[in-house]
Specification:
Layout (H helix, E strand, L loop, with lengths): L1 H10 L1 E5 L3 E6 L5 E5 L12 H15 L7 E10 L2 E4 L5 E8 L17 H17 L9 H15 L9 H17 L1 H9 L3 E3 L9 E4 L2 E4 L7 H4 E3 H14 L3 H14 L4 H25 L8 H25 L2
Antiparallel strand pairs: 1-2, 2-3, 3-6, 4-5, 4-6, 7-10, 8-9
Helix pairs in contact: 3-9, 4-5, 4-10, 5-11, 8-9, 8-10, 10-11
């Protein structure tokens, strides 16, 4: 994209990317800019400038709940002559989320080898307290709402069967997911009545948890689709537990899970089946989203090969969790 390339050159910035965003980090680290890609994946739509502006604003608003010290605001990017100027609103052609730079060594993903179970307990406390304050959205705890998301995942993953997920893994994962809805229908109802369905973060992952001087900060919540953020609080916390398992630190995952269970007042008979079910869901989502990189023209062939292997591992892990529910 011309705008990103020129901004990167003018700002002397490194450019990172996900399947939905470009992140520009100037060499002096005085700020970070996040620009949304003009893509439509069905579950998100950034295809117009107005939509990208709207979701930039929503991203800042929502992320200030768990990370107020990092999100500075939304800035316009105007085309002035043959240059793109950040903060100029004379001719906006793009919008960006402006953030403070978070040193990579503060992110959980980069300090797994020196992170203690006690630190994961602090993350659990931060999230449990956040969930207690979050708005209740009971309708998103209904089986129909949860199943809509899992059905969508299976549908959107079909093109990758035989590429990043085997036919056998795909079919067995779908079978056990649907079986869970039948076998645990009463549990879904109890969670709704118990006030456990909340407006959460939606994307609590290793690279989104930061240990800053003033406490734990959880970055980059989902702003583009409310139904991915709304749901059972166990669904919200399970993402990080799954990623700790994926990264080879099940010890940290257990410390985090047990601390959250205690702090949130969860009961064993509800917590453990839902934990494995939602960890399976989260692993499948990561497999799906990683698979999307194979169709991204901005991603190199080498990166796509690495993405293919990561996706396979996520899909296999998803089935492993469901096999714990149904050994």
């Amino acid at each position: 994209m011309e705008l990103v390339e020129k901004l990167a050159k003018d700002l002397d910035a490194e450019v990172l990317q996900t399947h939905i965003s470009w992140i520009l980090i100037p060499s002096d680290k005085r700020f970070v800019l996040k620009i949304k890609k003009p893509v439509n994946f069905g579950f998100l739509d950034y295809t117009t400038l107005e939509k990208r502006k709207h979701f930039c604003r929503k991203e800042v608003e929502l992320n200030r709940r768990l990370c107020p010290q990092v999100y500075e605001g939304v800035v316009p990017v105007s085309k002035v002559g043959d240059r793109f100027v950040v903060g100029d609103d004379s001719n906006p052609v793009e919008y960006a989320v402006k953030m403070k730079f978070v040193p990579p060594e503060r992110l959980l993903v980069n300090r797994l080898d020196r992170t203690s179970p006690r630190e994961l307990e602090k993350v659990a406390r931060r999230l449990a307290e956040f969930h207690q304050r979050a708005e209740e959205v009971p309708e998103y705890g209904k089986i129909e709402a949860v199943k809509f998301n899992t059905d969508e995942n299976f549908e959107q993953t079909k093109p990758f069967v035989g590429i990043t997920i085997s036919k056998e893994t795909y079919e067995r994962t779908k079978e056990l997911t649907d079986r869970f809805y039948r076998d645990y229908a009463d549990l879904f109802e109890r969670r709704i009545k118990g006030g456990k369905i909340r407006d959460g973060h939606g994307d609590v992952r290793l690279e989104h948890v930061a240990f800053l001087d003033d406490g734990v900060c959880i970055l980059d919540c989902i702003e583009f689709n409310d139904r991915f953020r709304y749901g059972d609080q166990i669904n919200d916390m399970a993402f990080l537990a799954m990623e700790l398992d994926y990264a080879g630190r099940p010890d940290l995952a257990r410390a985090y899970e047990e601390a959250y269970k205690r702090l949130a007042g969860e009961r064993d008979e509800e917590f453990y089946p839902l934990l494995n079910f939602y960890k399976a869901y989260r692993a499948f989502v990561r497999g799906k989203v990683t698979s999307f990189l194979l169709n991204d023209p901005h991603v190199s062939r080498e990166e796509k090969e690495r993405a293919k292997e990561r996706a396979k591992k996520f899909f296999d892990l998803s089935l492993e969790y469901l096999n714990r529910v149904y050994p």
